[in-house]
Design brief:
Layout (H helix, E strand, L loop, with lengths): L1 H23 L1 H7 L7 E3 L6 E4 L4 H22 L7 E4 L3 H7 L7 E5 L5 E5 L6 H25 L2 H10 L16 H4 L25 H5 L3 H22 L3 H10 L4 H23 L1
Parallel strand pairs: 2-3, 3-5
Antiparallel strand pairs: 1-2, 4-5
The structure holds zinc ion.
Length: 280
Amino acid sequence: MRGNVFLRYVLPALIALPIGFLMLYPQLLRCMRIADTNGYQALPGLPNVYVNQSATTHQQRQFRRHVLTARDRIRRFWGDRRGQATLIYCPKQADYEQYCAGGEGAGCSIGTPWGDAYLILGPDGNNADVIAHELCHDELFARLGWWRVKRQIPQWFNEGLALMVDYRFSSPLTWEQPDSSLQYQLPRNTLNPMPHALHSMLKLADLETTRDFFGGDYRHTMLAYQTSAEEVTRWLALVGRSGVPALTNAIAEGKPFADTYQRLEREKRSAQKRNGKRNL
Ligand SMILES: [Zn+2]
């Protein structure tokens, strides 16, 4: 009987689910076939990095340099690098759209429930900040997995964290220097100016899902990025760089995001108070 249930229901479901997933996302199917796709070549010496043949020698050299810079930044930010994503660089918009649905932005990341990840860089993606941003998403994905990122991580945190290694939107001073009380008082004007002067912030509670974050117009998305960057800058300046793996390790062990995020902040404040008293 049990064997019948397996053959009649469970096995077809196990086969149908991934196939359905791939039919829904043709871009993903193309990413999965990149190693055997005409017109793409692996960058020698960099495993899992593919470049469209339309890239000039200069673009290829630049891309290699930017990937190495971005990977090094991720290693320093997280303490080590666990992401295994395949990188695909398309200098032409038409090719980019084949791999990144909608073809918007400078880069995009795709993670699958079974653990594969792809980062696609478009015409504006040959840039260390863009690559580090996408690699940071991949790092979170590698540490927590698809399901936990979807269920546990609010989009404002996922994006805000990626903006900490993306110096178009944040200052390296937030974490590149050792922890100190000075860091917490980081003046606002040390943040790089956003492309648009935006003043009114959104509420974090309204930026929980990808739809909340990206579902509005361009101005809303920019405002969402700015709100997230400011919040994660504030948190990171307080808890320090070690707070990032501490948070993700706790979530990987099953602790809820909001409690852990606040607990790390509380603990740091109490430690600062104790040290302040001792120095009096
Ligand atoms: Zn992002």
